[in-house]
Amino acid sequence: MANATMEEFEALLNESLEMDTPDEGTVVKGKVIAIEAGQAIIDVGYKMEGRVDLKEFANPGEAPEIEVGDEVEVYLRSAENARGEAVISREMARREEAWDRLEKAYADEERVEGAIFGRVKGGFTVDLGGAVAFLPGSQVDVRPVRDAGPLMGLKQPFQILKMDRRRGNIVVSRRAILEESRAEQRAEVIGKLSEGDTVDGVVKNITEYGAFVDLGGVDGLLHVTDMAWRRVNHPSEILSIGETIKVQVIKVNKETHRISLGMKQLEDDPWDLVGAKFPLDSVHTGRVTNITDYGAFVELEPGVEGLVHVSEMSWTKKNVHPGKIVSTSQEVEVMVLEIDAAKRRVSLGLKQTMRNPWEVFAETHPEGTEVEGEVKNITEFGLFIGLEGDIDGMVHLSDLSWDQRGEEAIQEYKKGDVVQAVVTETDIEKERISLSIKALGGDKFAEAVGGVKRGSIITVAVTAIEDGGIEVEYEGMKSFIRRSDLSRDRAEQRPERFQIGDKVDVRVTNVDAKTRKLGLSIKAREIAEEKEAVQQFGRSDSGASLGDILGAALKRDDD
Q1: HEC states along 533-555?
Q2: 86 secondary structure, DSSP code
Q3: Contact call for residues 116 and 148 (beta carbons, < 8 A)
Q4: Where is the S1 motif domain positioned along the sequence (predicted)?
Q5: Smallest Cα–Cα separation from 402: which of 434, 447, 369?
Q6: What is the pLDDT of residues 340-394, one digit of tens each?
Q7: What distance in Å separates the CA atoms of residue 216 and residue 244, rounded to the nearest whole number?
Q8: Backbone phi, psi, residue 70, to 5°
Q9: pLDDT in the model for residue 61
Q10: 259 vs 190, 199, 250, 317, CA distance in Å?
Q11: What is the per-residue pLDDT across 222-271, written as a single tens digit (0 to 9) for each?
């Protein structure tokens, strides 16, 4: 009987232990009996106690809320460790509890509450009340978020996109929540908007091409060209994020929910008065706002810009980038050349505010004026000389020297040489100045042969004797008389019968200004004298001999 009683007692004891002792790997209830050294000591029954770090009782970014006497659920990992204590975890209990709750919400497509608490590669971590989920960067907002700082630790709703309890993976989206609420708000707000309405909005985002303005649940695009009548290089020049502005609704697309906004439409269009304020040929001071390859834009007043084409920038600087002539923000004087109100274009001129340097040069340097300048360039057809007013004059090959061929004379010059020349012509229309170096000091040939004509008899001095003839000089000009022109008599056509320094009368057979040479002949002079004698003292057919006629002529000369 006693044995039976002991067996019954043991069975009852085992049954009691099996019923009341919690299984390892389950969530159990416990009571906080003490808090010490940053840990909570929890009694989970049957003389089992465990320790849990206080931080496990806190939400990310918050202080732990736990006091002695609180009842809490913990996860029993092991009934006893080396110290005889139960190994328990509040965090794992919360995770199990959270997974049950989240799986139900996922199945019912319900929103869940969580808080972003960390940043990981590709996105963020979110605490969903015990379970940690991944929030991809693309699912944070409807537009890319540069700074997620303000969202950290903030309790807000999320939509579960995917979850796998076996792998412990949960993927959530904040964007899905925003899009859903935005769609409802957009429909409501857009239904109240009409084109032409003036509304208040808050600048939500700024891009290079404009700004997105929140109109109370729906965003509208304020394009950079609709911000002001003047040129705006970047929206940040006149707007800042969070600023409240007044805008006009330009266009509303009810189907796509796109709203176009404008600020400048609330101000008077400055172009309405352009014609009256900026008449043609008037000169104004403006500010350079933009420089391109083809010219520079100059702001005449806020909202009114004109283009100075590269061809109208300088009288002298051709094929130069506009940035070499003016700089951004520089104040310049410009002349109004043309106004096209329909196309909202003003053509301006920079060079027109300064006198044409070729006109000035023509007035101050008439033809025949001597000038001095530096050789700027040497080409196959002449020299370019730098002159006053930043303009060039050209000395053609043919105007370099009286005595040398142009190709030979140009070899004597190099870039940087300072030379003197005479102005021979100024063509204002073609912007061309012709110069001559050889004309300095006048034309010696023209001066020397000024009264000499073909047929004239002149006296020359022999300067050299050669086999083919003799070289002679007249007023500093050299000429050559060929052997055949030395005498009418063939026997006398001997160069050696002359001596250097002899004075000889010759007849001019040719005056060539181009080659600057005189054609001379003793033979022609003798023939002319004979002809004159025959005409004066007899005819060749009268029976008188030539000797008689010449003798009579000579006798008269002696008398």
Answers
A1: HHHHHCCCCCCCCHHHHHHHHHH
A2: B
A3: yes
A4: 25-91, 109-175, 196-264, 281-351, 368-438, 455-523
A5: 447
A6: 877 888 899 998 888 888 888 888 888 888 888 889 898 988 899 988 878 889 9
A7: 12
A8: -65, 140
A9: 61
A10: 8, 12, 8, 48
A11: 998 888 877 788 888 888 888 888 888 888 887 777 888 988 888 877 77
- Residues facing residue 114 across a β-bridge: 156
The answer for residues whose C-beta is within 8 angstroms of residue 400's C-beta and 6 or more apart is 382, 383, 406, 409, 410, 437, 438
Which helix (H) or strand (E) element contains residue 105?
Answer: helix 90-107
Burial status of residue 466 (CB atoms within 10 A of its CB: 0-12, 13-18, 19 or more)? exposed
Name residue 118's beta-bridge partners. Answer: 125
Closest C-alpha to 127, from 32, 208, 56: 56
Q: Which parts of 44-197 are beta strand (E)?
A: 49-53, 71-78, 87-89, 112-120, 123-127, 132-136, 155-164, 169-173
**Conformation bin of residue 455: beta by default, left when phi > 0, alpha when psi is -120 to 50:** left
Alpha-carbon 216 to chain mean position:
40
pLDDT, averaged across the chain: 81
- Which parts of 114-221 fold into alpha helices (H)? 175-192
> Over the stretch 204-223, which tens digit does the pLDDT of each residue have?
898 988 999 888 777 888 99
Which residue in the block uniquely carries the two structure tokens 């352009």? 274
**DSSP calls for 484-508:** GGS-SSGGG--GGG--TT-EEEEEE
Residue with tokens 């096209």: 340
Contact at 8 Å (CB) between 234 and 228? Answer: no
The pair of three-digit structure tokens given for residue 267, joined into one six-digit string: 């101000």
Torsion of CA 33, 36, 40, 42, to 10 degrees: -30
What phi and psi, each to the nearest 5 degrees, are found at residue 215?
-100, 20
Provide the pairing of β-strand 295-301 with 244-253.
Answer: unpaired
Burial 7-44 (b: 16+ CB within 10 A, else e): eeeeeeeeeeeeeeebeeeebbebebeeeeeeebbbeb
Residues 6+ apart with CB under 8 A from 554: none
User: Coil, strand or helix: which one is 192?
Assistant: helix
Other C-beta atoms lying within 10 Å of the C-beta of residue 188: 12
Q: Distance between CA 416 and CA 386 in Å, rounded?
A: 10
Overall size of the chain counted in residues: 559
